[in-house]
Amino acid sequence: MKFESATIKDIAKALNLSTSTVSRALRGSFEISAETKKQVLEYAEKINYRPNPIALSLKERRTRSLGVVVSEIANNFFSQAINGIESIAYNRGYHVTISQSHESGEREKVNIQHMAARGVDGLLVSLSSESVDLSFLKELHDKGLPMVFFDRVTQEIITHTVVANNYLGSFQATEHLLQQGYRRIAHLTSSPHLSITRERLEGYKDALAKYHLPFEESLLRNCPHGGMIQDEVEDALNSLFKGKNSPDAIFTAGDRLTMTCFGLLKRLNPQRHIGFTGFTNTQVGDLFAPSLTVVRQPAFEIGQSATELLIQMIESKRPVTEFQNKVLDTELIIRESSMKMK
């Protein structure tokens, strides 16, 4: 049985009014008497009438919907960022459509093109690890589709961006390990071309330089899927620990990568203490054994800021020509995993 929602025609027929009178009454028009408005609104509530969003979108030339593209909703950072996005969108009368790229450039492209075809008013995008050719995004942007990039951003498209202070978070995490006495600190990170990868690598390198230690390529491992594929992380760890000069600490540069690596490390090296810290927004870091030292990003606030900027663009009466690059500070939460064994 096909579901059919109540319409203005249903209200008009039941109350013996014209559809134009009902429409004006629902809009609160001054042309309609208070008594008629009350009658229409009470009956509309009784039959659970709701305006047709498709009809409204055709009239207003807007759908009041936002498209969100992330790599994986199960990622602690992205789930919290989405909460921030929805908190602003809901209060401003916008619906949110969420899609996952699963680090696939092709899936990201298909998802974005589908949302654009469905008429979303704007896009909030965090790029996948395979996102190299952004020509399809540039084309949509050039056609006037508002978009804001967050977390994983690009400089190829001139628009608002909202990120964490990846450099500072990485510098502080690496310096903390150095202050604990670790000297061979391995760095596990994602695809080399991602903005977060570059910024976090720079912070790691500069912390080493501050303590007069050279950057060693042999201690760097790229895991292109960011911890989503366990075998990829396990291969990286096995290659780090197979030689004589294996690391005494590990710093990971991604949420899912941190969680996957920390779990594998305990299984692969159960008898050896390895200093550990990483980027992750897990809320249960103190429940791990040892408790987990983390670089925490303001994910909820990043989602909120990106959404506010996007809605400003959508609702602006004039073309937006000045853009912000918002950088929000991270927080280093020190626990047992990074402490040097006495």
Question: Outline of this structure?
Answer:
The protein has 342 residues and is of the alpha/beta class. The protein has helices at residues 8-15, 19-27, 34-46, 53-60, 76-91, 105-117, 135-142, 166-179, 195-210, 230-241, 255-268, 299-315, and strands at residues 65-70, 95-100, 122-125, 147-150, 161-164, 185-189, 220-222, 249-252, 275-279, 293-296, 325-328, 331-333.
Description:
Pfam families: LacI, Peripla_BP_1. It comes from Cnuella takakiae. By secondary structure, the protein is an alpha/beta fold. About 45% of the residues lie in helices and about 15% in strands. It has 12 helices and 12 strands. It has helices spanning about 10-15, 20-25, 35-45, 55-60, 75-90, 105-115, 135-140, 165-180, 195-210, 230-240, 255-270, 300-315, and strands spanning about 65-70, 95-100, 120-125, 145-150, 160-165, 185-190, 220, 250, 275-280, 295, 325-330, 330-335. Helix 1 (about 10-15) packs across helix 2 and helix 5 (about 75-90) packs parallel to helix 12 (about 300-315). The radius of gyration is 26 Å and the shape is elongated.
Q: What would CATH call the architecture of the largest domain?
A: 3-Layer(aba) Sandwich
Q: Which runs of at least 5 residues are low in confidence (pLDDT < 50)?
A: none
Total count of domains? 3
Relevant CATH superfamily of the largest domain: Response regulator
Write the layout of secondary structure elements.
Blueprint (H helix, E strand, L loop, with lengths): L7 H8 L3 H9 L6 H13 L6 H8 L4 E6 L5 H16 L3 E6 L4 H13 L4 E4 L9 H8 L4 E4 L10 E4 L1 H14 L5 E5 L5 H16 L9 E3 L7 H12 L7 E4 L2 H14 L6 E5 L13 E4 L2 H17 L9 E4 L2 E3 L9
Parallel strand pairs: 1-2, 1-3, 3-4, 4-5, 5-11, 6-7, 6-8, 8-9, 9-10
Antiparallel strand pairs: 10-12
Helix pairs in contact: 1-2, 5-12, 8-9, 10-11
